[in-house]
Design a protein that fits this description.
It is built from 8 helices and 10 strands. The protein is of the alpha/beta class and 306 residues long. It has one domain: Zn peptidases (Aminopeptidase, 3-Layer(aba) Sandwich), CATH 3.40.630.10. An 8-stranded mixed β-sheet has the order 1-2-4-3-5-10-6-9, with helices on both faces. A two-stranded antiparallel sheet has the order 7-8. β7 and β8 form a beta hairpin. The N and C termini lie far apart (48 Å). Belongs to the peptidase M14 family. InterPro entries: Peptidase_M14.
Length: 306
């Protein structure tokens, strides 16, 4: 089924111009507070983690400081475990899961790994519960040298000195019903393409790197998360969101070629989590806990393998 006129902005078949982007921006409304939900939570972590302000996002009169937290007593001889959340600002459990891991578990790895957590890469999108940034650019397709997204460029600058030392990177995401009702239709309209309706997987799944799939690593994470929440099954085509299922709850993308956050380092072990908070079979608390379980399992597996 095609629906060329599904989205209310733009002319079907024609990519957006500056005028359509401005019309889209005018529709975006602040719905929650980055300062309250994220910055205050980061400040509470100063008691046992080092807080790093690694950049600032500016859109007109609005500015957002970007924060990461890292292990106290950083040891240059130890491997680095990188956790990122909120690359898509609307994906709440990615942000909350990263903060919850930092608060409750980052110190567990003292003497074994340096932990670096960037809990909310896209604060403007977080406040508006939006996938894109204020320029209608998807940060999670923008992790490349000529990045058009301030958010992506700032994170790349943060990790650049560590790029070769990161052992494991886990990027925390969600797949929501609004992917199908808002964000995919908006993408099709922005790019002047027809909207092709799809389906939303009911449950947790992982996106590995097709160039470096590490199947045992991915399955260790799935096994840990399965104790917390359900894993998404394949659809009738044996796929999840249009990609072939490589193993239980796992698909693979070429993360560097697509400019995904998971490709921002040369880590041996990389993955992107996807929880489904709109499922009637789960809760926000369970989604946050699933993200934490995934982070812990990823780091534990990577350290055990060396």
């Amino acid at each position: 089924m095609r629906n060329d006129a599904f989205y209310p902005i733009g002319t079907p078949g024609q990519p957006w111009t500056a005028a359509e982007r401005e019309a889209w921006l005018a529709r975006q409304v602040r719905r929650r507070s980055y300062a309250t939900d994220v910055v205050e939570a980061v400040e509470r972590l100063r008691a046992h983690l080092e807080v790093v302000e690694y950049g600032r996002i500016e859109y007109g009169s609005e500015g957002y400081p970007l924060f990461a937290v890292r292990s106290r007593g950083w040891d240059e001889t130890l491997p680095v475990a990188l956790v990122t959340g909120g690359v898509h600002g609307y994906e709440t459990s990615g942000v909350q899961g990263a903060l919850r891991f930092a608060a409750g578990h980052a110190a567990d790895y003292a003497g074994r790994a340096n932990i670096l957590v960037a809990p909310c890469v896209s604060p403007w999108g977080y406040e508006r519960i939006q996938r894109w940034n204020a320029q209608a650019v998807d940060p999670n397709r923008s992790f490349r040298a000529d990045s058009p997204a301030q958010e992506s460029a700032a994170l790349m600058r943060l990790v650049a000195p560590l790029r070769d030392r990161v052992l494991v990177h886990i990027d925390l995401h969600e797949t929501t019903d609004t992917d199908e009702t808002e964000f995919r239709p908006a993408l099709a309209a922005r790019d002047g393409r027809p909207f092709e309706p799809g389906s939303i997987p009911d449950g947790f799944y992982l996106v590995g790197d097709s160039e470096n799939p590490q199947p045992a690593f991915q399955q260790a994470i799935v096994a840990a998360v399965e104790a917390v929440t359900h894993i998404a099954p394949a659809d009738a085509k044996g796929e999840i969101i249009g990609a072939p299922v490589a193993a239980h709850g796992v698909i693979n993308y070429p993360v560097k070629r697509l400019g995904l956050c998971a490709g921002v380092t040369d880590a041996r072990y990389v993955t992107t989590t996807e929880v489904y908070p709109d499922s009637p079979r789960t809760t926000p608390e369970e989604c946050d806990a699933a993200q934490v379980a995934a982070v812990r399992a990823a780091i534990d597996f990577a350290l055990a393998q060396g």
